[in-house]
Write a structure and sequence with these properties.
ten-stranded mixed sheet, seven-stranded parallel sheet, 40% helix, elongated, binds ligand NAX, binds adenosine-5'-diphosphate, binds potassium ion, NAD, Bifunctional NAD(P)H-hydrate repair enzyme, lyase
């Protein structure tokens, strides 16, 4: 799947027209293909088509004509008094066909009778906050409990970022023209889009440009996972030092290490607090476990940094953070380790939180990946979880820029940014919304780093494998997504990774 921002879509549209393909033809093909989806998915008897003033509304007029042709009883709301260009031509056809045109005041009554709403109010020409009139219509659509098919992007969602500043339509299906719009795959826009489909509208490849956001699917990763080839020994196959766990959080350490083992590490070391070590040692048969100097609250003391660095002598990468705690001691420990190694480092969870307000990340020169969720990134940036959740693309890019590292922002979608590169992961499931799955992810990416992958590629591949493992678990067990526990991922990580070899 190709991902386009609003600007990229408008560029392709302009180039197609420069190549001699009339805009009206593109609109016709978009509307016809979308009407086909509406018929196949919803088999509507009565449809309300809500059309705004731009080309998105023009698509809506074509959809209305096609549904009318197919025998659906159609009502059309056209929000603008005067239309021009292709939308005007398509509206005129509806008038000639005596398709029923309704006024805003009639929308509620029409929604009561309709079994499908086509949302063609605002498309990629929209950004910011919807005006009062449109917001009123959107709220009525959302309150009606009728199936909704959105045209190109749900109205009120910023097609280029997924941001939602005010009212926005909740669709069951969003049908995008030519390329999926970025706003349909990044939260909160993704939750508004429902299922996202793409239809071809006649834009030739000559009109396309390189997208600024990469959709991380299996094809984009195939062959990129390093293999262990002869002659090999355990240290040449990836040696990972995981710095994780405390008395209260032994599981985080176990899950990170087990994720790393299944993602192909030749050998794993774990540094954890002396009090936590006996428990994790039992769970980690293959791992060399070092119980290091304990500090307050059963976590590792900053004084343990030298020992951990010494023990990392043969490591090829480090994962730092799962379950280490967020206190002052944790911060000093993380800073000391970071200052003492140029190996590739992944910082997760408490390690990210603890670096808020420090310059440790910005100063660091070695390859670095951070894997925060919105709360952790909010603390790091000082902006808060709410701001990060509302502006996921912006926030992850800002962090990658400010700290000069690779940023993987976790959530219902996963964004990976480094330098000018941005990608959105294609795999995953709500099943992953359970404690510990993030720890497994840190281990999987850590393993890929230890085996020589570069940070951006390791983060993309790790996120894909992790999400795919959840999909495979769901398929294999047939169990409810809610029943997944993080340790279920272990057996599926290898199979997911196998799909990329
Ligand atoms: N190749 C393409 O790009 C094609 C695009 N098509 C459609 O064209 C759309 C893009 O067309 P446009 O550029 O006309 O964009 P829109 O259809 O999104 O037009 C913007 C409309 O939103 C209104 N608006 C803007 N800000 C607003 C606000 N804050 N509150 C309320 N209303 C606001 C504007 O007055 C205008 O009527 C796409 O989403 C797609 O549906 C199709 O026609 C097929 C071809
Ligand atoms: N609704 C969801 N859909 C898909 N993936 C999700 C969803 N919720 C969470 N995830 C994924 O699950 C993992 C949770 O990690 P994290 O928040 O660090 O939890 P923990 O610290 O308990 O391990 C991340 O990889 C995240 O992207
Ligand atoms: K729309």
């Amino acid at each position: 799947m190709k991902l386009y921002t609003a600007e990229e879509m408008s560029r392709a549209d302009g180039r197609a027209q420069d190549l001699g393909i009339p805009g009206g033809v593109l609109m016709e093909r978009a509307g016809a293909a979308m009407a086909q989806v509406a018929l196949e998915r919803f088999s509507p008897n009565r449809a309300l088509i809500v059309c705004g003033g731009g080309n998105n509304g023009g698509d809506g007029f074509v959809i209305a004509r096609e549904l009318h042709r197919a025998g659906v009883e159609v009502a059309v709301l056209a929000t603008k008094d005067e239309y021009g260009g292709d939308p005007a031509i398509n509206l005129e056809a509806l008038r000639n066909l005596e398709v029923r045109l309704v006024r805003v005041e009639e929308v509620e009554a029409e929604l009561d009778r309709a079994d499908l709403v086509v949302d063609a109010l605002l498309g990629t020409g929209f950004s910011g906050e919807v005006r009062e009139k449109e917001a009123g219509i959107i709220e009525k659509i959302n309150g009606a409990g009728v199936s909704v098919l959105a045209v190109d992007v749900p109205s009120g969602v910023d097609g280029g970022t997924g941001e939602v500043a005010g009212a926005a339509v909740f669709a069951d299906v969003t049908v995008c023209a030519h390329a999926a719009k970025v706003g349909c795959v990044i939260s909160p826009g993704a939750e508004h889009a429902g299922e996202t489909l793409v239809v071809e509208i006649g834009i030739p490849p000559e009109a396309d440009s390189e997208p600024s956001l990469l959709w991380t699917d299996g094809a984009s990763l195939r062959g990129s996972i390093p293999r262990t080839s002869a002659p090999a020994h355990k240290y040449s196959a990836g040696a990972l030092m995981v710095v994780a766990g405390s008395r209260a959080m032994t599981g985080a350490a176990v899950m990170s290490v087990r994720g790393a083992e299944r993602a192909g590490c030749g050998i794993t070391f774990l540094a954890t607090s002396a009090g936590a070590a006996p428990a994790v040692d039992i769970a980690l048969t293959e791992t060399i476990v070092y119980g290091v100097e304990e500090g307050e609250f059963g976590g590792m003391s900053p004084g343990a940094a030298d020992e951990i660095l010494g023990r990392s002598e043969r490591a090829t990468a480090l994962v730092i953070g799962p379950g280490i705690g967020t206190g002052e001691e944790g911060r000093r420990l993380v800073e000391a380790i970071l200052a003492g190694t140029d190996l590739p480092v992944l910082l997760d969870a408490d390690a990210v939180t603890s670096l808020a307000g420090t310059d440790a990340l910005a100063r660091r020169e070695g390859p670095t990946v951070i894997t925060p969720h919105a709360g952790e990134l909010g603390r790091l940036l000082g902006s808060g979880a709410k701001e990060v959740s509302a502006r996921r693309l912006h926030s992850s890019r800002q962090a990658a820029h400010d700290y000069g590292c690779c940023v993987l922002l976790k959530g219902s979608d996963t964004i990976v940014v480094e330098g000018g590169k941005t990608s959105v992961n294609s795999t995953g499931s709500v099943a992953l919304a359970t404690a510990g799955t993030g720890d497994v992810l840190s281990g999987v990416i850590g393993a890929l780093l230890s085996r020589g992958m570069q940070p951006y590629e390791a983060a993309r591949a790790g996120a894909w494998i992790h999400g795919r493992a959840a999909e495979l678990w769901l398929r294999e067990t047939g169990w409810p997504a809610e029943s997944m526990v993080a340790t279920d991922l272990f057996d599926h990580v290898p199979r997911a990774m196998g799909e990329l070899l």
